[in-house]
Amino acid sequence: MGSCSVDRLEVFEVGPCKDGYQMGLLIGQRFSETIRSRVASDLILQNQLRPFAHSPHSQSLLKPLFYNNQTKFPRYWDELLGTAAGSGVPFLDILLINLRKEILAFIQKEGAKSANSDTSDDCSDVLVVSESMAIAAHNEDANVALVGHTYIIKGILPDGLFFVGYTYAGELPSCAFGFNSHGLAFTLDSVPPAEDEIVAGGIGRNFISRDLLEATSMDDAMNRIKSSEISVGHSYNLFETSTRRIVNVETASRKRISVYEVGNTPFFHANMYLHLPINQVQDENSISRHKRAAVLTKESKGDFLSLLGDMDDKKYPIYMTGPLLHTLCTALIDLDKQTLSIIEGNPKKGDVSHVFSIAPQKSP
């Protein structure tokens, strides 16, 4: 498939819906082909998640995991039920791709980490809040199976407020980045806690980030993150247009959380914990990207985009083009212009495909 044939990212407006199931159903119907295609090409689902789910000893992990997520977030659970029904993909497959991080953490112990083990969401962010600019640039990196398997959901809620989320086919919006009409935005980076830092049956990251799309403020977003007993761990970059604030929040199981307020010094975050004290897996890829980012100029928006487009390190480039990992797109958030722009292709070239206003809106 030549890159010229890749369709522009589609924005699908959905809602207001009577319930979560209907919203999921409409999304599933609209993108059934994309969701089916993603499931058919997802080797991690086929080679690891499905066989595990069908093995007798999986129930002790999956039962509490499913129960706890459904109980805490029944509306988002119903959204996934609707997505499965609308797309014609088995509900179990939809659950497995949405909770894959929470499940893989436990099944990869059994087999040594294989070549198709999950490296499916590396990301890089560079953030700054100075007098002259308050911006963030984010590379959305994913497993090659996700190329062409993403879309943007604009969900309109019953009260007329809305969210916009960059969405992986079949997953809850958004495991990547998004914003809402309260002027709150986020980007996400996965982080790798060591095995002894992981708790089985906790809340899935996809459910927490779906919940963040409905946060009314920075404080509300923090409370939503804090109130969820997560299983694995995650790094959240939160943006509030009304206060011109950017914070990086690192989380781990057992309700551990660390908040770093971004200021004048440009802050680079890849896929490792920087300020939450925790045992973590040493990720060569992230370490290399950090070293490279440290030496690059970070004085302007153009510098940030050049940094995220950097391919100097052949083995672990910041901008990824395969064979295993691909940078799907770059998001640029400008709190002064109050915009979120999506750039497709190397961000150095600055080929903007979408621009959204992230200014807070009054309830209709």
What does this protein structure show overall?
The protein has 364 residues and is of the alpha+beta class. It has two domains: 9-103; 122-355, Penicillin V Acylase, Chain A (4-Layer Sandwich), CATH 3.60.60.10. It is 31% helix and 25% strand. It has an eight-stranded mixed β-sheet, covered by helices on one side. It has a six-stranded antiparallel β-sheet with strand order 11-2-3-12-13-14, with helices on one face. Helix 3 crosses helix 6 (91-98). The longest helix is centred in the first third of the chain and has 14 residues, at 59-72. The termini are far apart. Residues 1-6 and 110-118 have low confidence and may be disordered.
Name given to the CATH architecture of the largest domain? 4-Layer Sandwich
Q: Can you tell me the CATH superfamily of the largest domain?
A: Penicillin V Acylase, Chain A
Uncertain ranges? 1-6, 110-118
Mean pLDDT comes to 92
List the helices and strands in order: EHHHHHHHEEEEEEHHEEEEHHEEE
Radius of gyration computed on alpha carbons: 19 Å
Q: Kindly state the number of beta strands.
A: 14
What is the name of the CATH topology of the largest domain?
Penicillin V Acylase, Chain A
Strand percentage, roughly? Answer: 25-35%
Distance between the termini: 43 Å
CATH class designation of the largest domain: Alpha Beta
Question: What about the largest sheet?
Answer: 8 strands, mixed
Number of helices: 11
- Measured as a percent range, the helix fraction is 25-40%
Structural class: alpha+beta
Strand order of the largest sheet: 1-4-5-6-7-8-9-10
What count of structural domains? Answer: 2
Q: Based on CA inertia axes, which overall geometry fits?
A: globular
